[in-house]
Amino acid sequence: MAPPPGPAPAAEAGLLSLLCNPLLALASDALRRPRRWLAGAGAVTLAAVLALPLLEIRTDGAALELPDDPVVRASRDDQVRFGDADPVIVLVQSRPGGPAVASAQGLAVVAGLHDRLREVPGVRASGVRSVASVPDLRVGEDTLSADPFLAAIPQDPRELAPWLRRLRAQSATDALLLSADGTAAALYLPAAEGADRGRLVAAVSRHLEAEPPADFDWTPTGPLVAESLLGAAVLEDLARLVPAMAVVLGLVLAFVLRAPGALLLVMAEVGLVLAWTFGGLAASGRPLTLVTTSLPVVLLAMAITDEVHVLERLQRLLADALARGEEPRGAVAASYAAALQQLARPLVATTLTTCVGLLSFTLSGLPALRTFGAAGAFGVALALLATFTVIPALAAVLPPRSRPRSSRPAACCASAAPRRSGRR
Question: What is the model's pLDDT at position 423?
Fold first, then answer.
């Protein structure tokens, strides 16, 4: 047999004691004055929830860029210098069997849509580009006119054909603003200075919800729209999957712990950690990006692990205490304190190593990864703090069970030692 493990090195023992002793003192106080701790936790949670509306959600690609990268800086400077911000693209297409976009009817639709989209909040009106903005340069003896081509669209087919040839002769028109087959046209909508790109996409999409003319369709498209749709899809998945994951974990824990109170304690810690972490993220002014959208799942899993170990040990100690005839409410507090005392060192050690691992992301050049690492470590540390404070306080005020179950939870994992039978 392998020899039992020796004592921890002095430096390790000193560091763990330095962290464990204050936490155990907090746990003792929480068990002694639970209502005061629960009131404080409620106030902090309320403040965190009130801060959540301040959380900025940025699921666009720009939120993942390296701000100090020379290429990124040069690209941004060029966009400002030439007024060439990433645009939202609106595609107008003809329906099968209907008139082409490159027709009097279709170009009138494009011209009307061009004028309406210039008024959308967040759009830089002077930068909107489409066939409706192409000038028709005409030079007279003493005059030069530059009215837009679509200011006067010929209705007579005999006049329309040469007019379309002159329109397509403009270098910016053919295959850029108007497709070669005449069935589609594009409108480019740049963002105004300081406008939020996600809100711009949402505003344009809302405007396009109006029903287009019978023979045409219009659709927002382009990189900005794709990023916005990706972000919306991720958020919708999280809104659906995180509660589903919580329900599944709750069912598993209910089967393993076999006590409604224990399940309530675990779910309470999960809710508190998520609220505190994202409330703190909102208060810090850091946005929620495609990277940090995974934090709820990470914290949901990590917040549960410590509490499962504590509650499994608590149930064993509580069963022994009640079997000895101890008063139930006092037995809960004493058993919880004993469970934390026995598990404090491994709980602190695992939390410490997890936090160090997450904090390594703060060395990244990507702001989104730095935020993920800092917020993740913050959430894991809060989970440990809740395990030693709020959750013991909540356990102390829950109605205690009058007697233990006949079979201990997780008995299959408790000990492999054979049981002694009373029969020979």
Answer: 40
Taking phi over 0 as left and psi of -120 to 50 as alpha, with beta for the rest, 97 belongs to: left
Angle, helix 223-257 to helix 197-207, in steps of 10 degrees:
100
- Give the dihedral of Cα atoms 204, 209, 215, 216; nearest 10 deg: 20
Please state, in angstroms and rounded to a whole number, the distance separating the CA atoms of residues 335 and 363. 42
Q: Among 306, 311, 315, which residue's Cα sits nearest to residue 408?
A: 315
Tokens of 42: 């409620």
Cβ distance 87 to 189 under 8 Å? yes
Q: Is the pLDDT of residue 384 over 80?
A: yes
Contact 370, 403 (CB under 8 A): no
> How high is the pLDDT of residue 367?
87
Residue-wise pLDDT for 209-237, tens only, equals: 876 777 888 888 888 888 778 777 877 88
Say yes or no to pLDDT of 10 above 60.
no
Mean pLDDT of 379-397: 92
Which of 319, 339, 308 has the alpha carbon at shortest distance from 402? 319
Q: What's the pLDDT score for residue 307?
A: 84
How far apart are alpha carbons 8 and 318 in whole angstroms? 29
